[in-house]
Amino acid sequence: MPPSSMGKTKPRRSIIFLHPDLGIGGAERLILDSALALRSLGHRVTIYTSHFDPSHCFDDALPTAASPPGPLDIRVRGHTVVPPTVLGGRCKILCAVLRQLHLLFCVAGEVRELRPDVFFVDQLAAGLP
To answer: What is the torsional sign of CA 117, 120, 12, 46?
Structure first.
């Protein structure tokens, strides 16, 4: 280890994940594994989603998860205005984009409190400037 890096600690980061539906799938597994790994390095991790069903998710996402230092901080926002689909199962992509925009609008006030260093926006880039 070089002398210049001895005794220095890496700064703890605040990291926010935005994911449309935290169910059971490959993207969800990737989000949870990434969040758990970052948290194990000492970072503060918050996951925002517009849909989370504790009866249909990975065990790591449950509020009773035994992974230290406790359950992940998963916050459900942006799910009250736009339904998953309209018109008999049509317009799924449009509804997903509108729910993502609603999610971003809902978390805008909380983001100031969390003071994030990094955002991970998964699957829907509709909210990116």
So the answer is: positive
